[in-house]
Amino acid sequence: MIDATHFVLDLETLSTAPNAAIVAIGCVRVEHGKVVDEFYERVDLESARAQGGQVDTATLQWWLTQPDEARREISGELPGVHITAALAGLRAFMLHGGLTEARPLVWGNGSSFDNVIVRSAFERAGIPEPWRFWNDRDLRTLLALRGLTKRSVLFEGTEHHALHDARHEARLLIQALWPQQVEPAPAQIEQQPEQSMWLEMIDAAMIEMRNIAPPLRRSECERLIRAALAAQGAVA
């Protein structure tokens, strides 16, 4: 497996169902412990819905709680390509360099989400999927086996941006499979525990408050947590 060609796949969608409407696709190619290429496309929502992509209210409400930078990528404010073009581009990206469908290992976070949803989209678009089902890989399982979490590597960029998430997950994959090649910067080592705790507090609060109407934005949730901690003298 170490010598295989790995692809880390991340989707942004408007549902969590297998036939979810895809609004952005990020994918990173990893070989021998190094990132060698990446792919990103925003998808036109109407084209995804026209091919049977599902949109659900709960996911739309969840998106309302996310940072403006993340929502901008999926809001339609920026142009997206037709879903068929995006999927054709992803297939070409994965098979570039003479790979056959039997070779790529495709990592989802987890594979029951990203891999299943994009496979359904390929089927609805009439495009052969670029990998075989037996090469589905689950990043969450690998991280658990290695004693790692999604915060084991400092996140760079905007969370819930498909390419930024895929890059982060690729770095986690590299840390899990090729730990000798990971050399965190000293600043990262010092800042990671505090930032990890802070982000996990916000994530936990967002889950607890997701049913509030109207839903809180992530920035509002962060402000409330910071105010509460400041009142207890936990933060400056």
UniProtKB/TrEMBL annotation:
<dbReference type="Pfam" id="PF16473">
    <property type="entry name" value="Rv2179c-like"/>
</dbReference>
<dbReference type="InterPro" id="IPR012337">
    <property type="entry name" value="RNaseH-like_sf"/>
</dbReference>
<dbReference type="GO" id="GO:0003676">
    <property type="term" value="F:nucleic acid binding"/>
</dbReference>
<protein>
    <submittedName>
        <fullName>3'-5' exoribonuclease</fullName>
    </submittedName>
</protein>
<dbReference type="InterPro" id="IPR036397">
    <property type="entry name" value="RNaseH_sf"/>
</dbReference>
<feature type="domain" description="3'-5' exoribonuclease Rv2179c-like">
    <location>
        <begin position="6"/>
        <end position="173"/>
    </location>
</feature>
<dbReference type="InterPro" id="IPR033390">
    <property type="entry name" value="Rv2179c-like"/>
</dbReference>
